[in-house]
Write a structure and sequence with these properties.
The chain is about 85% helix and about 0% strand. The chain is mostly helical and about 120 residues long. The chain has one domain. The chain is globular, with a radius of gyration of 16 Å. Keywords: Membrane, Transmembrane, Transmembrane helix. Pfam families: SpoVAC_SpoVAEB. This is Stage V sporulation protein AE. InterPro entries: Spore_V_AE, SpoVA.
Length: about 120
Amino acid sequence: MIFLWAFVVGGLICLIGQLLMDLTKLTPAHVMTILVVSGAVLDGLGLYEPLIKFAGAGASVPITSFGNSLVHGAMTEAKTHGFVGIITGIFEVTSAGISAAIIFSFLASLVFRARG
């Protein structure tokens, strides 16, 4: 049953993004920003973690989870280290994913050539 809910929730998040692009004049960058901020706001309200517990990867894989990670890390570290924790918490939680994206992008650029 968890697979069904992951599919439904992840699909709904993607559907919202696709509808925003199709029915408005928003660019993909604007839609991505809206989804990241939505994930951040939902985490700030305490609603995103229950969604992850309910839907698993359906809520933790889409881009909304990045906003969730930023706010979750900042809030966790702020409780421990105060104001400085807000800044360090953002980097602590997301640094592995960002580092991996940079490293794999660099490796891909060594293997493939850009067309144009």
